[in-house]
Amino acid sequence: MTIIPERLPWEELVPLKLRALYESFGYKKYHMGKFEPYDLYRENKNFLKSESIITFTNANGKLMALRPDVTMSIVKNVKPDVASEKVYYTENVFRMDSAGIDFREINQIGLEYIGCESGSYAEAEAVALAIKSLEAISPDYILGVSHMGFVAAVLEECGFSGESMEGALRALKQKNLHELGALCKRAGIAPERTERLCAVAGISGPMEAFLKKLRGLPLSDAMQTAIDELSSLIETLAAMGCEKRVHLDFSVINDLDYYNGLVFQGYIQKVPSAVLAGGRYDNLMRRFGKAQPALGFALYLGELTRAFHTVSEYDADALLIYGDAPPVVTARVVGLLMNDGMSVRAEREMPAGLRGRRTYLLSGDGAIEVTCND
Amino acid sequence: MINIALPKGRLGDKVYKLFAQIGYDCTSMTEDNRKLVFKSPSGNVSYLLVKPPDVAVYVEHGAADIGVVGKDTLMETEPDIYELLDLKLGKCRVAVAAPNGWVEDMSMPLRVATKYPNIAQKYFAGLNREIEIIKFNGSMELAPLLGLSDVIVDIVETGTTLKENNMSVFAEVALSSARLIANKSGYQFKKDMIDEIVSKLGRKI
Question: Are A61 and A131 members of one domain?
Answer without folding.
Answer: yes
